[in-house]
């Protein structure tokens, strides 16, 4: 099947938006600290939902698109987990009460969806009109992969947020205390802003940075805007519950960033090969496609992405186990 039926696209988006709104209303109505069991059930629900979506694509006779979605979803999911590291830093930096962290995360997810939707439309337009953009996307992903490996990205992100906070405090009167999840409160008869505003802005800036990284990655797997958006949507849904489920375990996934870096580098190389096949630049092979360049299949991409996540996770768990036993032995 060359195209995805319109009824499937519309129906899927309607169902997903309803679920996302229901999740948001549930938080607003009953802000609380979710238990490990509750978080695990929600994460399991959203993962199952993504798998059902892929199965639905397969059942309507669209195996290739189902594989593209799974590859894109796993890529975006791994990048989203990496995003959680920065969220943890932001929550700790601003001492956000744990009771209201759910609302902060949900607002961050909505901001991320809006930003990524805009980047998806922009990326689709660029790809449609400028095939050479794949060279730029590929180079950017390889650069991002190298940066992920050699730089302390999460700490650098926290420093950037501190700069934003200093600028905001210089021009806007912001109170030092929270008033629930409110953005404004009354102090000595005057309306002032709460630190929650800074938290939302910090989360938004973080989402913007990660959108710039993740959208080229997903376009390296599929150029269908609907699948790109669906992969991002499924990756972000359940991210809030995953935050509470993993908790302190995030710090133990020490090698996850290397797995993510390998995925980004792999997709970057794949984009380079694809760019050669659709080459129109006159100074490269006379503007003709470079047919000898290998074509990486979607099945191979899915296998590499899945293996990278599994290997980096298992390696992290083994390293933590060895370190724990060593510490126990020294005592």
UniProtKB/TrEMBL annotation:
Location within or outside the cell: Membrane
GO cellular component: membrane
Major localization class: membrane
Keyword ATP-binding annotated: no
Keywords: Membrane, Transmembrane, Transmembrane helix
Membrane topology: Multi-pass membrane protein
Keyword Manganese attributed: no
Transmembrane segments: 6-28, 40-61, 73-92, 104-126, 132-150, 192-212, 224-246, 258-276, 296-319
NCBIfam families reported in the protein's UniProt record: R_switched_Alx
Family label: Belongs to the TerC family.
Protein name as it appears in the record: TerC/Alx family metal homeostasis membrane protein
Organism of this sequence: Candidatus Microbacterium stercoravium
Phylogenetic lineage: Bacteria, Bacillati, Actinomycetota, Actinomycetes, Micrococcales
